[in-house]
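Table S2 (text version). Query chain:
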Amino acid sequence: MSTKLKIAVQKSGRLQEDSLEMLRECGVRVDNGRDQLKVSASGFPMELFFLRNSDIPQYVADGVADVAILGQNTVIEKEKNLEEVLPLGFARCRLSLAVPKGTVYSGINWLQGKKIATSYPNTLRAFLEKQNIQAEIHEIAGSVEIAPNIGLADAICDLVSSGNTLFMNGLEEKEVLLKSEAAIFASRNMKPEARELLEKLLFRFKSVLAARNNKYLLMNAPNEALEAIINILPGMKSPTVVPLAAEGWSSVHTVISEDRFWEIIDQLKAVGAQGILIIPIQKMIL
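Corresponding structure-token output:
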């Protein structure tokens, strides 16, 4: 029987959707039938386990699953000794302390002796100990944000992405305990065959991530501006320059990172680039 990589993903929710989309972009097809907890994939020797988010670190630590796609915040909270293999750049959020609007918050010492509601007691406890703060922690499974409104707590510690939930419940973010994103985590006791499969999968993931973070850029440029344009471009290597039919003009091709896109476009226009085209990249093999 051939070896398959066993990967755990969230049973339901946005993290599951993003994880499956990432796998699809890597050429892995998953037929997640209704209420199926274990399925085989096509396009890669892999089995997927659909599990509760909070249970996944234990399954990976015990070797039931070889790897998982999971938020860094969950692994930190569960305090399991997993290997973080590759951050994935989605499901970004932060674990923050928030207090009711209008609270005269004087700084971290305001929390001294207060009641704090959270679904992340271990992470919160470690943070408070580091700050030498004595506070009462109320562990709540969900709907943490309502705790101050019903008199259960003075503050909350919860995940924040856009901040809309805090706003809707009359809360203000005051302290950030940690920042988190989805990542691939691996068991430290993986068999060599599974590790080899993981390396092959990581190659696909890195190609997809590189494509997501970069754009293919084409432009027309007067030849007298070529040197200035090439000096602006931060591409992987020297850009491709192709003469055009129109005398004195060339087409310049390169790859630029998403985070510098608008800054670079403005500079290129300023030195004479025209007809600028930006094309998404499907895969990028480095």
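Notes on Table S2: The mean pLDDT is 92. Residues 214 and 258 are 5 Å apart (CA to CA).
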